[in-house]
# Entry
Amino acid sequence: MKKIILGVIGAGRIGKLHVDNIQRYFPQFKIKSIADPELDEQWAKDKDIPVLLRDPDQLMNDSEIQAVIICSPAALHVPQIIACARNGKDIFCEKPISSDVEQIKMALQEVKKADVKLQIGFNRRFDPNFAKIKQMVKNKDIGTPHLLRITSRDPEIPPRSYIHASSGMFLDMTIHDFDMARFLLDCEIDEIYASGNVLIDPIFKTINDLDTAIVNLKFTNGALGVIDNSRQAVYGYDQRVEVFGNNGAVHAENNRQTNTVLSNQNGIVSEKPLYFFLERYKESYIAEIQAFCDSIAHNKPIAVTGKDGLMSVVIGIAANQSHRENRPVKINHEQWSEFA
# Structure
């Protein structure tokens, strides 16, 4: 198979992770160029990347590059998606596309016009535990789904610099859970009711944000869901899912360093959940790039579409409105039908 020539925009934590995974697991990809205004050139040279750039425009204008991995700050995603599309390049873009729905629509229209592929980086869909739940629900192993519960709690609050640059809990953290809800039940969210508070650190009050939240969901097929979020679970990265149906239930517990359990007269003790998201979702980051590679190489449908990226933001905005107005908010799906 002829190698697919890649460019990578953004060499922060996630950009470096994708580069490492591509070079280790995907010989069918060749990274020609990486662009970042604050590029760690020594790291890039150690990775033997031929072309090192500070200006992403140079990368996007390179006719040899067939596909681009976008890992830049979210505010740059839309213009970079548009530039890639206009240059005929397939695109993998980290979430979110934008926090502005009109900007997302503009980007998706350009992608459609250029007839290029766009995959959004909702890596949790590719976690083996959650992917198995999805398959079991699809196979009707639990009958018709009635209830969905997602628990997503970070082990500690993020750095102050990240908090101030964040789009807020619902568009920055819970956005993954909104995507998981749609993915697991293969159904749209019809109504959302979000409540939250600041119970961990008063810094969140100063920026009009939350650190603790409960979100109730109603799906278009009648099923109900609940998401609970916290920015500080002192015991580790708490990531659990359950789907309950009329013929049974399926759930996924936390990943731990080992499954060893000590039982004695003092009690039963197991290891704490993995602490860092890069450890917890290591396999899923590899699998999402595999899906992108397969889509390009074999002209397969994209696994996580621009529409998926759009709807997660639409739901996040509705959650903000619900919390602000203290009421359920309906989601109008007709206005997004053109992106189906």
Summary: The mean pLDDT is 94. The radius of gyration is 20 Å.
